[in-house]
Design a protein that fits this description.
This protein is of the alpha+beta class. It contains six helices and 24 strands. A hairpin with a 2-residue loop joins strand 6 and strand 7.
């Protein structure tokens, strides 16, 4: 069965989970002090001497002693067995849902999408979001996203989200709950779609996560899945999926219409359009190669909504500015949809005169745009950019911006605005030589 969907958001890098700062006086070598809108071969001054993560004290996690689980309750086993039978029987579920290919359409934070998802039990999933030109690979303890032209490693927070969802996904097929290492206990469950439900909570030896399954009292079909887990930005809360429709496919009753929410806020509304049960070509799970690294390309950056702030002065304080922007997004109850983007409006030798706009894409919303002192939300129009995905320390970016400038001139484009950088790696955990960034200039013919 296909119930749980991994986050469709553009990878939110560790810049969302923490803050970054800059090293000493990076603007000293910028040269000229010119306004960046003139773009006379200027490149972001922060790239001259590099950036490093701001010092942070991370709590040392304590290992909790393993707690022996209660034997499964006879009442809960009875509820589970009725549900397994209603969905097609344990043997059929195990054989046919251990691998699948599922096509779907739906809305992610209100934005339409279409997808094709490949699954192999217990923890291999690849989701191709066709309409968003994004592919997510969740393979056990590894996680990556291919977004347009680049392949990005998931930050630690996204890996945690994926692992929790993979477990819930596997258990939603019900037959794994009959494992001897899994304990099921009766659970009080709410009505779903106005209908009474009965439920069980499942736990496994050595796994902290608990997942509650509700089944429609009349049909015994799956009605909801709930667990406390993580979501975008590292938040902890209630992840809930309601099952509002089923289809009979190859002898099984499979969920076909679902609504997923986090802390009561709807994230994904989805309807399955096609099922293929029982097998999947494992070649699809292979991580794509980084084929365009270092190459210049020209393409349109899609229109989007972004929260932003303008930072004036030394790049040394950019880390705190990012943290403050994330705080604004959190307080405004917006949903981050990507890593911070730096727009270098003005730079020079006098660091006090540097001006940088920091943006972070957020999910579309209804009503008035939130704002606070120093922060606001705006629509970023679609813009043609010359861009390049580059790898290496921040100290190397000046040369890479110059190479990008040479590329766009050769291609017949003119720079039409300030330099832009999007960080795609976590500088707190990534070696300088492995840092991945997207650099770009808005261009015109």
């Amino acid at each position: 069965m296909k119930i749980i969907r991994p986050a469709l958001a553009i990878v939110v890098t560790a810049l969302v989970f923490g803050v970054v700062g800059c090293q000493k006086k990076p603007a000293d070598k910028a040269g000229g002090g010119e306004d960046m809108t003139a773009m006379k071969q200027a490149v972001p001054a922060a790239m001259n001497e590099g950036m490093r993560p701001a010092a942070r004290q991370r709590p040392v996690p304590r290992k909790r002693p393993a707690v022996a689980l209660k034997p499964s309750s006879p009442e809960a086993v009875k509820i589970l067995d009725a549900a397994i039978q209603a969905h097609g029987g344990a043997e059929a579920l195990k054989k046919k849902t251990a691998a699948s290919v599922v096509e779907a359409k739906g809305k992610y934070y209100g934005q339409p999408y279409t997808s094709k998802t490949y699954w192999k039990a217990p923890d291999m999933m690849l989701m191709d979001v066709v309409s968003m030109k994004a592919t997510m690979g969740y393979l056990g303890k590894t996680c990556w996203t291919k977004l347009h032209e680049v392949v990005i490693d998931c930050p630690a927070g996204e890996v945690k989200v994926a692992q929790e969802m993979l477990l819930a996904q596997h258990w939603s097929m019900l037959y794994p709950l009959k494992d001897r290492e899994v304990s099921v206990q009766p659970a009080k469950t709410a009505k779903v779609d106005g209908k009474e439900t009965v439920g069980v909570t499942a736990a496994r030896t050595g796994v902290a996560q608990r997942v509650t399954f509700a089944f429609y009292k009349k049909t015994h079909l799956l009605a909801s899945i709930n667990y406390r887990g993580h979501w975008s930005g590292g938040k902890m809360g209630l992840v809930s999926t309601l099952v509002l429709g089923h289809k009979k496919v190859d002898g099984l009753q499979v969920p076909a219409k679902t609504v997923m929410s986090f802390n009561g806020k709807i994230i994904i509304q989805e309807e399955i359009t096609k099922f293929s049960l029982g097998k999947v070509d494992e070649k699809v799970f292979a991580r794509p190669k980084q084929v365009l690294l270092g190459k210049g390309i020209v393409r349109k950056i899609e229109a989007h909504t972004a929260a932003f702030a303008v930072h004036k002065g030394d790049y040394m304080k950019l880390g705190a500015a990012i943290g403050a922007l994330v705080g604004f997004i959190t307080n405004a109850k917006l949903s981050p949809m990507g890593p911070p983007v730096f727009v270098y409006l003005k730079m020079g030798k006098d660091v006090a005169k540097n001006v940088t706009e920091i943006r972070m894409a957020v999910a579309p919303f209804k009503g008035m745009a939130p704002q606070a002192k120093g922060f606001a939300v705006k629509k970023i129009p679609a813009t043609t950019h010359a861009l390049s995905y580059v790898k290496g320390p921040y100290t190397s970016l000046r040369d890479k911006y110059q190479a990008l400038s040479a590329f766009l001139k050769k291609a017949g484009y003119k720079i039409a605005g300030p330099a832009v950088m999007m960080g795609l790696s976590d500088p707190a955990t990534t070696k300088p030589a492995e840092l991945l960034n997207r650099i770009s200039f808005p261009v015109k013919k």
